[in-house]
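Quick question: what would this complex look like in 3D?
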Amino acid sequence: MLLPDHQYLTVDSLSDCLKALRENGERAQVVAGGTDVIFNMRLKLFEPDVALSIRRVAELQQVEELPDGGLRIGAGCRLVDLVEHPLVNERYPAFADAVRAVASAHIRNIATLGGNICLKTRCWYTNNSEQWRQGVKECFKTDGELCHVIKSSSLCHAINNADTPLPLITLGAVLTLQNADQRREVPIAEFYRKDGMDHTVLAPDELVTHVTLPPVADRTVFLKIAARQGMDFSQAAIAARAAGTGADAPQVSLVLGSISMAPIQLDQPARTVEAQGLSDEAIEQAVAQVRAELGELTSLYARASYKSHLAKVLVRRALKALREM
Ligand SMILES: Cc1cc2nc3c(=O)[nH]c(=O)nc-3n(C[C@H](O)[C@H](O)[C@H](O)COP(=O)(O)OP(=O)(O)OC[C@H]3O[C@@H](n4cnc5c(N)ncnc54)[C@H](O)[C@@H]3O)c2cc1C
C-alpha cells in the first residue's frame, strides 16, 4: 500500500509548526510518531497535501515538575520516555500503566502522548484497504452519508480506542491547545465529542502542546482487556480513582474507554460507592447501574452485549482493586 502523494514538511520549533498549520489548515495532517496516521494514509483514509512532522520540536518533548507537585508533559513525549520516567511512575501510577498498555514496545518507542490523545476513532468498515472498501458503500468517514454500524444514524459510530485519556480524565488533566494566535486550556474531560467523525474539540489549525497533571494523592487504577495483551487495541478499558482508604471512598471517578465514540464517565456507579463505601454489596449495586450509563452500544469490533459484560467486569475489578490499595 503506497502512501498518497504529499509534501513532507518538517519543523524544528513550535512557532514554525503553528505557522505551517495556519497556512495549510485542513490540507495538513500532523504526524507525531506516525504509528497511526501513516498507516491510515496508506489505507487512503486521509490524503493530506502536507504531512507536517513535529518530531523535531524539542519544546514538545519535556516533562516539567510544577511547584504544586504536578507535572506538565509535552505532547511530543514518546510513550517509552513516559513509561521510564520516575516522576510519572511515582506520582501517576495508573497513567503510567495506561501508557505501558498502549500497543507493543516497538510502537511505544516512536508513538507520542499527543498522538494517543488525538488518535482518530477506528471502525472495521473503514480501517481497511482502499480495495476492500470498494466493496462497501461510502460512509461518513469516506465522504458518504451513512454509518455502516448503525445504518439509520446521522452520526459516525467509530470507536475511540485510545488508552491514556482514561486515567488522564480521572486525574483531572488539562490540555493546552495552541494555534498561531492564541492558547487555550481545556480539561481533557471536555476534549472528546460523541461523534466518530469530529471526535475532539481541536480546531484544524490547533495543536495539543502540553498535558498538565495536578497533584493527586488518591488511589488510582487502570485496567485493560484486549485479545492479545501487549499488542492489541483495548476491547474495553477502565481508569478509576478514589479518595480515602480501605472501603471508605468519599470521592470516586470511573471512566470507561474503547466501547463507544468517546470515553464514558460513569456517574451513578461512582455516586453509589461514594455513599455506601467499597463493600461487596455496594460494588455489586454499582455494577448493576453500569449498563444504563453506557447509552447506545454498537456491535462494532465486539457484540454490544459482550461490551456491556466487559464494562461491568471492569467496574467490579477496578473498585475491588481500589479497596485493596
Ligand atoms: C498494532 C497497533 C496497536 C496499537 N495498539 C494501541 C493500543 O493498545 N492503545 C492505544 O491507545 N493505541 C494503540 N495504537 C494506536 C497508536 O499507535 C497509538 O495511539 C499512538 O500513541 C499514537 O501516537 P503517534 O505519535 O504515533 O500518533 P500519530 O500517528 O502521529 O498521530 C495520531 C493522530 O493524532 C494527531 N496528532 C498527533 N500529535 C498531535 C498533537 N500534538 N496535536 C494535535 N494532533 C496530533 C495526528 O494528526 C493523527 O491524527 C496501536 C497502533 C498499532 C499500529
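Answer marked as accepted. The first helix runs from residue 14 to 24.
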